[in-house]
Amino acid sequence: MGEVMQKPILKMVDTSVFCDAGKFQEAYLKMNTERKQKIDRYRFDSDKRLSLGAGLLLQEGLSELGISAYSLSFGKHGKPYLKGQNHLFFNLSHSGTVAVCAFFNREVGVDIQKMKPVSQKLMKKVTSEEEFAYFMTLDEVEQQEKFARLWTVKESYMKYSGTGLSLAPAKLTVTFGESVSITCDGQKANVVFEEHPIKDYQITLCYQRH
Which of 50, 90, 125, 142 has its CA 20 to 30 A from that of 105? Predict the structure, then answer.
């Protein structure tokens, strides 16, 4: 894979299509052993479908980029990487019934969040003091929309950086304006955010700025 991507590639699938047993089995048989084992470990059918959808997006995306077989390695906090591929990165996320996968030539993080009611306890746990005070001024519908935006920005950044939840979300402060930015312990991160809202969901990509 020699070409340089100008922007990340984003793929998504609504895994409710796999409620059909025949379609589930057809897609499952295409998965490599690693993904099949991951799917099999899940107890609930909804989780199996999400894992299958994520695996399918990864496999199809890599195939389109010229990679027919792959194996994974994992970073310190569990971020997956492609073994033997130093110039192609990917990231996966799922929520509700939708799975997404992003590909890029540089580190990338993606997060999807289905909009739903948010408890004050959760908001307080993952927001800065200023952010929490702002949320308390919103009605329930606005809270759902704004929280989905805020959370996917923070989560996509944590996934981009490979820290996962080892980096407390409350330590991150998000600023929405002409562009989205994020600061950690007062220092602005040198990253770009792309927001991709779809019906009932918010998707955000994070990748390193040139």
Answer: 50
Give the range of the structural domain holding residue 187, as residue numbers without chain letter: 112-208
**At 5, is the secondary structure helix, strand, or coil?**
coil
Tell whether 137 and 79 lie within a shared domain.
Answer: no
Q: How many domains does the chain have?
A: 2
CA distance 120 to 137: 12
Cβ within 8 Å of residue 110, ≥6 positions away:
8, 10, 91, 92, 93, 100, 101, 102, 156, 159, 203, 204, 205, 206
Question: Strand, coil or helix: what is 32?
Answer: coil
Strand pairing report for 191-195 and 201-208: antiparallel
The 10s digit of each residue's pLDDT in 3-15 is 678 899 999 999 9
107 burial via Cβ count (<10 Å: 0-12, 13-18, 19+): middle
